[in-house]
Amino acid sequence: MTRLLIRNGRVVDPSQGLDEGMDILLEDGCVAALGERLRAVKGTPVLDASDLVVAPGFIDLHCHLREPGAEHKETIASGLRAAAAGGYTAVCAMADSDPANDDPAVTRYVREMAEEVDGTRLYPIGAISKGRNGEAMAEIGEMVDEGAVAFSDADRPVSNALLLRRALEYALSFDVPIVSYPMDPDLADGGSMHEGAVSTRIGLRGLPAAAEEIVVARDILIAESVRGRLHLCHLSTGASLDLVRSAKQKGFEVSCDVAPHHFILTDEDVAASNYDPNWKTYPPLRSAAEVEGVLQAIYDGTVDAIASDHSPHHADEKELDFGDAPFGVIGLETTVGLAVDRLLHGKVIGISQLVRLLSTGPAEVLGLPGGSLREGEPADLTLLDLRKRWTVNPAKLLSKARNTPFAGRRLKGAPVATIVGGKVIWQSSR
Ligand SMILES: [Zn+2]
I want to staple 14 with a disulfide (CB 3.0 to 4.6 A). Which of 178, 266, 356, 413 is the partner? Predict the structure, then answer.
């Protein structure tokens, strides 16, 4: 029997309303006991968590691991190592591999490659449509059998409203959500940064906030009409979040996540970077007023989860002009530190809400195991040092990619250990 005793930690578990000093005993891959001064059988390894937060394992419900098809950007193995070092015990991989994850054989391949890594868990997200081309529905049921936990055409919106409605209806029979990528391609019109005063000033083609918001509105209306489970990813405007807030108030099963770059950076940072493509992402970095709208939605509980939207690209691709470079920034190894630094130390939310957004929330949105330290739950835990000061250094990241706008940023707060199934899969040198 494998055991681990975690001593003297500050246990923060929103699923039980817990925030107090305790020990946790892990046995055979599950949480066996919680309490003060727990006793374990002789020889049980002990991990001293004094001055650390002990939380249910963090779950990233949106990342791109690029395998199969673009292993020069990231592989499942390198992505999962980066995830472990970022404090994640589980991640969900988007379907935009090549071939796309639109077929149970690809779902199985992704799952089996992750099992070989034997670290952070991977839950595949299957494609809604075959080839992600928005026409014929993919084999959703067969992919669920192979472990897919949600469906999304990744970075392609489902333009056909009827297909989206059918997918929402069909997914209900498997109790999985449909994940919407909110972008209207016609309105986006080849834009590369947020449309506003800054894009006008520096002369880059703008991406209007409405390109995101009208798809959020449409998808919510369709989901409401069939009572489907809809999750909207990386929302970045106040109006998008107002729409989610009002759908929730009406009692519909609509959820959403936000990414750290959208609650920290603005379009002024794009200008200040001299249009560095490492600041190019979809949705684009918005105005300061939109960032305020995102922070408000985090504060009032409209947001269910923080996701990395880890989007690795090769350095050559990010050396193109801003307009031509691909969208996306990496985030697996910076999301937790950025969230602690900006949201907790910046006094937007408290520690319990922060852990909810990184663990309990994503588990609930996708119906995944974990997100809780109740006895009998999987022994997946993330240990945090809220006071640790560190600097984002791309050269030290375990991801294959380096496309981050946060290089050189000094942060307070970091994950220091990641435990999956009762086994320490990553630990920092404290
Ligand atoms: Zn994405």
Answer: 356
Question: What positions carry a catalytic annotation?
Answer: 309
Ligand 1 geometric centre to CA of 69 (Å): 16
The band of 429, judged by pLDDT with boundaries at 50, 70 and 90, is: confident
Structure tokens at 250: 């009406």
Give distance in angstroms: CA of 369 to centre of ligand 1. Answer: 22
Distance from the alpha carbon of residue 111 to the mean position of ligand 1, in angstroms: 19
Beta pairing, strands 58-63 & 410-420: unpaired
Q: How far is CA 241 from CA 190, 258, 290, in A?
A: 24, 10, 10
Q: What is the pLDDT of residue 430?
A: 56
Query: What is the CA(285)–ligand 1 centre distance, in A?
Result: 14
pLDDT, tens digit, 9 for 90 and up, residues 191-200: 999 999 999 9
Q: Quote the DSSP letter at residue 344.
A: I
The residues, any chain, with a CB within 8 Å of residue 112's CB and separated by 6 or more, are: none
What the chain holds in terms of domains, given with CATH numbers, is 3-53+379-427 (2.30.40.10), 57-366 (3.20.20.140)
